[in-house]
Structures are given as C-alpha cells and as structure tokens.
Amino acid sequence: MAAAAEAGQDGAYRAYATFLGKSGRMDQALPWWAKAAEHGDADAARTLAICHKDRWEFAEAERWYRSAADRDGGCAFGLATLLKESGDQDGAQEWYARGAALGHVQSLTNGAVLKAARHGAFAEAQAQLDEAAELGDRKAASARQVIENIVDDLELWEERLARAEADGDAEAAFEALSPLRDPEYAGMFTYYPSTIRAAEALYARAAAVGSHQALVEQAILVARDSDRIEEARALAVRAHELGYSGAAYVLGVWAFERGDQRTAEHWFETAAAAPDGHDYARFHLGLIGIMQRRLDEAERWLRLTGDTEDENDQYGGLPRMFVEQLEEIAAIRADPARLPDPELAARLPELRAAAESGGAEECFAYADALDRLYRLPDAADWYRKTGTPRALLELGRMLQDCHADETLLVPYFGPAAEAGDARAAYSIAGIHTHAKNERAAGIWTLKAAELGHARAAWGVGWASEQRGGDPQFAERWYVRAAEGGLARPAFLAGRSMVRWGRYAEAERWLVKAWENDIPEAAYHLGRALRRLGRTAEAEQWLRRAVERSGDFDPPRGPLEGRVDPRPELAELLVEAERDEEAAPLVADILAEYPGHLAGHRLAGRLARHRGDLATAEQHFAQIEERDSDPGTRMSLREIRELLAQVTHEH
C-alpha cells in the first residue's frame, strides 16, 4: 500500500491514509490524506478538517473545509458549523445555504434553524424544514415542531397581553407573560435568541400598561446581551424609581456578579430596607459581610429573616442557606488564620504611602495587602490601578472567590495567559468549560498544556481519546502530563503504548503509575514485559495484577470492559508448559464467565496437552464462530482430523 501511494496510483492515497488511521498512526496518515485532498478528494478534505478540529487546530480545519466546500455539501456543512461555533453567524448562514444548494440535507435543516434562531424568520424556516423532512432528515421534523410550538406560544401570550392592554390592567398584563419566567423557556432563549427580542417587546408593552415588574423582566432580557448592560441598568433604575423594590435587588445582583461589591451593597441595602423587605438581599449582604470579614454586620443581616419562637432553634427558623452562612461565620471566628492579620493591618499606612509615591511593584504590594486583609473593594481598585498582568490575574482570582460571574473575568486572566502563565490559561479554560463553550475551552486547555500545565495536558489527551481515532495525539499529551508529575496520565500513556505495540517505551510510565498506587498498571506492564521476552518479570507483574484486580477502576464507558489479568497470566503459564498452575485459573475464568473466549481457547489447549481430544474439541467448537484468532479454527480442524483417525482405526 505504501508503494502504491508513493507511486500515486489511483485511490492509493486514501487507502493508505485509511489504513494508517485505523492502525492508530494518525500523524503518519495526515500527509496522505492531504495528498488525496490536494488531488480533488473531497472526503479526504473533510477527514483532514475533522482531524484538525479534534486537535483544536481550527485554522487548519477551516482551510481544509474551504478547499472543497464550494463543490462538496459535507465540507460546506462542516465549514458552516465551524464558523457558527466561532461566532461567525453570517458565514455560517452563507455556507449552510451553499451546502443546501449542493444537495446536503443537513445543511438545509441547520440553515433553517439558524434563520429562526437569529432573525425570527419562523415561516421561512418551517418551509425549509418541511423540505428537509421530505428529503429524509428526521431531525428536521423535530426542529419544525419546536419552532411551531414557539410560534404558538408567542401568539398565545400576545393574545393574553392584548386583552390586558384593552382593560388597562397592569397586573393582568404582567401575569399574561408569566410562562416566560418558567425555567422551561430558558432553553428557548438560549437556542433561539430571536425570541429574546420578541419577549422583550411583550414586556415593554406590559410595562407601558403600568407593570413595573414587567419593566424589570424586560431589563433582565436586555442584560442577556453584554453590550446592552447599560440599557438594562437604566430600565431597572427606572422601575426602582417607580416604586418596585425588586428592581433594587436585581441591580444589586448585577453589580455583585461583576465583582462591584460597593455598588452591590448599596442596592441590596436599598432592597432590604423596603417596606416588604427582601430576604435574598439580606442574604447577599450577609455574604458580602463574610467576604469582607465584617462578621457582626453579616450576622445581623442573616438573622433578620427568622420568624419562629421555638426556644430550641438557635437560628430562629432561618432557611438552610442562611444557617450555613451563620455556621461559616462561627467557623471563621474560631480560626485566627481566617481573620485579618493585625500586624499586616498595622503596616497598611506605610504600604499605602509607598504605593502612592512608587511604581507598579509598590501598588501591587498595597493591593495584595488589602486583599489579604479582606478589604476587597479597595483591593480591586488598586489591582486595577497597578494594571500589570500579574495584578489583573490576582484581581480575577479574587473576584472568582467572591462569586463574580466567571464569564466576565476572562479579561483579567487574559494578559497573564498571553504572557505565558499556564495557570492563567487553564483558569480561562475552566471558565469556558463551566459556560459550556467547548470550542473556547478546548483552545485554552491546549494553550495551557503547551505552556506546561500538567492537568491541562491530561485534559487535552483525555478529550482526544474520548473523541476517538487519534491515539497518537492523546498519548503525546498524556506523556507531557506525566512528565509534569501526574500519575494517572502516566498510566494512560503506558496503556496506550502497550495497545500499539511500543512495549519498551511503556515500561517507564507503567512503573510510575504502579508506584503511585494505580494497580491496573501491573496488568499492562506484565503484558508489555511478556512481549519483550522478559517472561519471569512479566509473571511477577501479572500475579500482582491478579492479587489487586479487585482494586482496578471500573469501566469508564459502555464500550469498555472490566480488565481481567487472569487470562494473560494463564496463557503465559500454558506457553511455559506449567499446565497444573494454569488449570485452576482457567477453571475460575470459565466458572465466572461461561462464554469467555480466551478461557475456552486456553481450556482447549490444556485438554489437548493432556490428550483429551473430545474435551478440547468442545471448547474450541464453542468459540469457533466468535474467535478472530485463526489458531482456534486451525486447532479445531487438527483435533477433528485426529478424532476421525482414531474413530476409523477402531
């Protein structure tokens, strides 16, 4: 095959690339896929794009998709999806349309959904989905049903609102839109952003009737777009000025999520002081007090909510979330290490003077002291004033600890990550992981791994292995993680090397894994040493594996079976003609798993060794149709020939 590919024979590039890929040698396969793609093979271009996308090499993936997208619907679809995931919605819309024109039905479906999601073009989308369904795309019918439900719901809410508007009933107008606040519709807003604009318009109409709550709900929808946060804040302030106490709480939450505790505290106090009081505002005031170690204030806010007269209830009937924070206050008071350091507090005037007259280092030292003394708003100010990547990184970490919205913190981690800080890059990856942005999480995990972050390297390898098809890439990153001192990736690297026949390389990593109490490493190490001809050592490791097999990790997926080291040890013993030692192992295997392939194969060999041809035939016959080992059929044929000779002689 290699010779045919080198000679450029028709179809040989693809055939050789496929062979290498199936053999776990994707690094060697990629150049041959590229050769095939360069000679006009659109499937090869798509395969290359997928491989590079799975390696988070998005520029390369886009290049290969584009190389054939104008003539191949699958590549057009892949390109559109890639662009959509990157945020290029216009590009995605264009290439879904071009894929559909090339007859690619999934492009027709996805393009229709994107039109509905972006522009609210529901009628046009439904027509396209009908067409896609007729062409056989089962997903099109379910997508059409979702859109039909959305359209029906919007029309129903519009009708209810119109009746309330006609009556001039503000309360009824707000209640007409109550389903929009149901968590069930959170997915609608996420996957069909055009519905946000429709819902926003409905709330604006309810607010015009006089519902101040509707004004706040409108503001919350507007705030989903980070570029419109000032507009959302203005709507909430207006609702507050009109007398709705819940608006102050919402304004407090927005400030709290952005790490602005001063502003958050102002609005939470406003909400808590309202005639009807606001329990969750008090809860947040308690949180802020704990974070800033203003413990007496925090306790006072948290205790305002209880209403029981039960003398045995020391927390006065408070909800559990309030009680947990009061318990946290007690724990802090009991631990001097969690309280502000008096010596550092005494040095604060000196540090401030140095910061005001000095440079970035002095500013950072003052900000750091404020941070450690829990004077968080002031610390945030001075970290920002310092402005160095290190200062912004510490600010980001501080705000993370203060429960700020992580998606807003990326700019604080970014400068340090771009300057080569692996931990900062890994933090950004974690933020995107929590936000379920797989593309961004992958990019930053890979960057952190490239910068030397061991856990990131482990994550890159694990994600690649889970996708399947690229064991070399996964193994490369497991090795990097193991070199960073992690035992589990050392095991995964060694196991991969054994699977692909690189036994000598595997030994180092599997020994490391065993020394770090990963017992399954003994099994793979035994297999490797056996194939290296080091039979005595292999036997020792396999016996250890049998002894510790109860401690092996359970299978991690439905396609993985539990590792059993007994067949490997039994086979080693049979090959060494130590049948008496092997026989009990084989018997145990078949007692536990009556249909076990290796168990029957070994039992057949043992029976043949002792001259019991009938029993040997029974064992081999049971697995003849299932066993891919040609030795089974060969042994069975020989045994049957021998049995026939014996029968003929008698």
UniProtKB/TrEMBL annotation:
Q: Quick check: keyword Coiled coil in the entry?
A: yes
> What SUPFAM superfamilies does this protein map onto?
HCP-like (SSF81901), TPR-like (SSF48452)
This protein's record includes keyword Transport:
no
Keywords, alphabetical: Coiled coil
InterPro entries for the chain: Sel1-like, Sel1_AlgK, TPR-like_helical_dom_sf, TPR_rpt
Q: Which residues form a coiled coil?
A: 140-167
Q: Give the signal peptide, or none.
A: none
A Pfam family hit: TPR_16
SMART domains given for it? SEL1, TPR
Q: Could you identify this protein by its name?
A: Uncharacterized protein
